[in-house]
Write a structure and sequence with these properties.
about 425 residues, alpha+beta, Thrombin, subunit H, Pdz3 Domain, 6-stranded antiparallel beta barrel, 8 helices, 20 strands
C-alpha cells in the first residue's frame, strides 16, 4: 500500500502572502511632513542660538566696554628757558633782566649743525610711530571700460587707544566718498579702517582700526601721539618739525619755526587758532606740527591760508581741537546753532555799557539761530541757565547740548536807550 505524505493533508491550508501595496500619496505626505518638521526645528534651533549665544558669551566671557577718550585740561606749561630765572630773584630783578638782555655770542661749527639735525631726526623717528598713511580706495572705469582703483593718500595721527581699536585723526575730504579705507603704519603693516565720525566745521574726521587686524610685532611699533598746547605764548618763534606729508609725499619730514599764532578762525559755533610756519611745501600737505618735546601742537591744514600763501604750511591749533577730538572719538554729534561771535571787550563794558557775554557778530543763513530770531548785535549771557561771560564760554557750554534738542539762550538786545533781556528757544541740529 502506498504511503501518503503527511504534508499533503495540509495542502489546503497553503496561501500565498502578497506584499501590501505602497500608498505613494501617504508616503509622500509623511516625507514632506518629516522634512518640514526638520526645517522648522533647524530654524528654531538656529534662532535660539543667535539670540542666546551673545548672552551666554557675555556672561561667560564678559567683554570690556571701549574706553572713553578724554583729555585733561591744559595747564600753563613752563619751557626749559623759563626755568633759568632763579626762585630767589625779585620781581624788580626779573623785570630788569627782561628789559636789559645781555648779548649772547655763539660760535658754531659745521659739526654742531650736524649734531643739531641728528637730534631733530632722532626726535622725528621717535614720534613717527604715531603717524600713519591713510589711503582712500575708489573703483572706477577708464576710457576703455577697464576697471581700476583710484587711491588718494594723506597722513593721519593716532590720537587714542580705546582698548579695542586705534583712533586716527585725518582730513575728512580724502575719505568721505571712498569705498574703503586702508591704513599703513610706520613698519609697513596695513589694516582696514572705518569712518567713526566727521566734523564738517573743521573738515576733520576720526577713523578706527581694530587691533585684532594687527600682530604683536606691528602693535609694538604703534604709539599714541602726545597732544601738547598751542596756547602757550612761548610757541611763537620756537623751532618745530612737521611729520607726515609736508611735501605731498608720505613719511617725510620738514624743519622750521612758528611765525604766527595770531590768526583766528571764526567759524560757526566755534573759534580756532591758526598756527603758521616758515616752511613751504605742497598745497595738499598733511600731517602734524610737533614742538621740541615731541608734542603735537597743530593739525596741518592749508584750507585757511591767505591768498597767495597756498604753499605755506599752516595748522589748526591743537588746544581748540581737543574738544572736537574727544567728541568725534566718543561718537557724539555736535549741536549746531549757527552763531559767529567774539568776546565783549573791557573798553566796551566800561565806556559803552555793553553787557558781559558772547557778542553775536554774524548769523549763519538758514541756521537754527536765524530761524529762532537771534540777531547780530545780540549778546548771549546764559545758555540753558548757565552763565556765559565770553564766546569761549558759549562754545564750551554748547558742547554739553545734545544735537536735535531745544536750548534756551538768554540774550541782551539793545533798545533805544538800554539793553533788554530775552529768552529765546532754539532747536539745535547736527552740524552739516
Amino acid at each position: 500500500m502506498e504511503e501518503k505524505d503527511p504534508k499533503q493533508d495540509f495542502d489546503f491550508m497553503k496561501e500565498k502572502i502578497k506584499d501590501r501595496p505602497v500608498n505613494k500619496k501617504k508616503l509622500l505626505r509623511r516625507t514632506i511632513i518629516t522634512a518640514s518638521m526638520a526645517v522648522i526645528f533647524g530654524l528654531v534651533a538656529c534662532l535660539t542660538f543667535l539670540v542666546l549665544e551673545p548672552l551666554f558669551s557675555n556672561w561667560l566671557y564678559p567683554e570690556e566696554e571701549p574706553q572713553q577718550v578724554t583729555f585733561p585740561p591744559e595747564e600753563d606749561e613752563m619751557l626749559p628757558e623759563d626755568m633759568l630765572v632763579g626762585e630767589t630773584q625779585t620781581e624788580e630783578e626779573t623785570a630788569a633782566a627782561e628789559w636789559n638782555p645781555q648779548p649772547v655770542e655763539l660760535e658754531l661749527e659745521v659739526e654742531d649743525y650736524q649734531i643739531l639735525y641728528d637730534k631733530l631726526y632722532t626726535l622725528a623717528q621717535e614720534n613717527s610711530k604715531s603717524i600713519v598713511t591713510v589711503t582712500g580706495v575708489t573703483s572706477d572705469l577708464d576710457w576703455f571700460n577697464n576697471p581700476y582703483e583710484n587711491r588718494d593718500r594723506t597722513s593721519g595721527v593716532i590720537v587714542a587707544n580705546t582698548g579695542r581699536e586705534y583712533l586716527i585723526l585725518v582730513d575728512q575730504k580724502r575719505i568721505e566718498t571712498v569705498e574703503s579705507i586702508q591704513v599703513t603704519f610706520r613698519d609697513g603693516a596695513q589694516a582696514g579702517a572705518v569712518l567713526k565720525k566727521a566734523d564738517p566745521i573743521t573738515g576733520l574726521a576720526i577713523i578706527g582700526v581694530a587691533q585684532g587686524q594687527l600682530d604683536d610685532e606691528a602693535l609694538g611699533q604703534i604709539a599714541v601721539a602726545t597732544l601738547g598746547s598751542s596756547n602757550n605764548p612761548n610757541v611763537l618763534g620756537s623751532p618745530v618739525l612737521i611729520l607726515g606729508s609736508p611735501y605731498g609725499n608720505s613719511n617725510s619730514i620738514a624743519y622750521g619755526m612758528v611765525t604766527s599764532m595770531g590768526n583766528i578762525l571764526h567759524l560757526p559755533d566755534s573759534i580756532y587758532k591758526l598756527v603758521t610756519t616758515d616752511i613751504y611745501g605742497s598745497p595738499d600737505a598733511s600731517g602734524v606740527i610737533l614742538n621740541m618735546r615731541g608734542q603735537v601742537i597743530g593739525m596741518v591744514n592749508g584750507s585757511f591760508n591767505a591768498e597767495g600763501m597756498e604753499n605755506q604750511i599752516s595748522a589748526i591749533g591743537i588746544s581748540e581741537l581737543k574738544n572736537v577730538i574727544e567728541r568725534l572719538s566718543n561718537g557724539k554729534d555736535q549741536a549746531h546753532i549757527g552763531i559767529y561771535g567774539t568776546d565783549v571787550t573791557l573798553q566796551a563794558q566800561e565806556e559803552l555799557k555793553v553787557p558781559l557775554g558772547a557778542y553775536v557778530t554774524e548769523i549763519e543763513l538758514d541756521s537754527p539761530a536765524m530761524q529762532a530770531g537771534i540777531q547780530s548785535g545780540d549778546i548771549v549771557t546764559r545758555l540753558n541757565g548757565e552763565t556765559v561771560t565770553s564766546y569761549g564760554d558759549y562754545i564750551s557750554q554748547l558742547g554739553h547740548v545734545a544735537a536735535g534738542s531745544t536750548a534756551t539762550l538768554t540774550v541782551m538786545r539793545q533798545g533805544q536807550s538800554e539793553y533788554h533781556e530775552l529768552d529765546i528757544e532754539v532747536t539745535t541740529k547736527t552740524a552739516e
